[in-house]
Amino acid sequence: MMDKKIITENLEEAIFNVLETMFFEPVQIINKEISLLNWFSDKQPLFGANLAFSGLMKGSFYIFVPYVVATEITANFLGIDEEEIDDEQRMDTVKEALNMIGGNVFSFFDKKGEFKLSIPKLMGEEENTYEMLEKIKGDTVFIESMDNRLAAGVAIET
Amino acid sequence: MAFNVLIVDDSSSMRAVIKKTIKVSGFNVGQFLTAADGRDALEVLKEEWVDLVLTDINMPNMNGMELLKKMKEDEILKTIPVVMVTTEGSKKIIQESMALGAYGFIKKPFKPEDIRNSLNSIMGKNNDGQEDYHRELGGGDF
Questions:
Q1: CATH code at position B37
Q2: Which of A21, A52, A154, A156 could disulfide-pair with B109, CB 3.0 to 4.6 Å?
Q3: Is the pLDDT assigned to residue B134 strictly greater than 60?
């Protein structure tokens, strides 16, 4: 039986790899016992996305990215000015970032391709993202960028 | 001689990034074509002359492996080189796609040079982007 720790342990490295390689976003992980609601206590607008996976374990990855950071990473990713970015591009970039993080996590240990990733989805476009934060039950990695903060994590079904 | 590239990915941002990477690398691309999944890609392939396909694997409707399989079953399409550009990095997936006839494999997240090197090897260019010879693959002149 595979230990779920293998996923959580590789998540931090995947976050670094993806955010720094593809989005040119230097980040650091903050080891803190804090809730997602408190982490984003400034209530800035957020994009949230999740990515289900199945295989030896079942669960989903998730990410929360403030609007400002989404704009920044989208501009870096696409190589265009922030003023040119629209919401569709922001949302697509957040989903793609999570897709790469999820794929990168499994690439560290899943040599036999026993895990299968789904398609990333935006969380609750219609509802308040802050209400969703309360519902998340998972192991969250709290991330600081140069001048903002984001969070990503994994929820594994038992 | 210019060549046509088909980029298949359900992320419009990723399609744009791959296109930009190829463009700034100085390859002589005639036309960039795009598709959001394997099904769309087959439609494009029916209509347009394509010299190279870069495809994601994990996509809705028809994934990249199915697209590759369909292309290899087709007398004309089977000659077009296909490079998988994907987050799926397991040895099994790489082996499966190579067994199906993929030309190469680029793992996301990638660096621009990963795309450049892969295209260089297909197009017979050296790594600094200078054309040194043309190599014919699948009926397309590069």
A1: 3.40.50.2300
A2: A21
A3: no
| Residue B67: domain span | 3-123
pTM above 0.90, yes or no: no
Collect all residues with Cβ–Cβ distance below 8 Å to A98 and sequence separation of at least 6: A49, A50, A51, A61, A62, A63, A120, A152
| B13:A93 CB<8 A | yes
Structure tokens at B131: 């054309």
A19-61 residue pLDDT tens: 998 898 889 999 888 999 999 988 888 999 999 999 999 999 9
Contact B12 A119 (CB under 8 A): no
B87, closest residue in chain A (CA to CA) = A103
Is B86 part of any domain? yes
Burial class (CB in 10 A: 0-12, 13-18, 19+), A81: exposed
Indicate which CATH number applies to the domain containing A49.
Answer: 3.40.1550.10
Q: Kindly state the tokens that stand for A89.
A: 């591009």
Q: Looking at residues A128-141, what average pLDDT do you find? A: 84
* Total tally of structural domains belonging to chain B: 1
Residues B5/B29, Cβ–Cβ less than 8 Å: yes
Chain A contact for B109, CB < 8 A?
Answer: yes
Residue B8: strand pairing partners: B35, B55
ipTM: 0.86
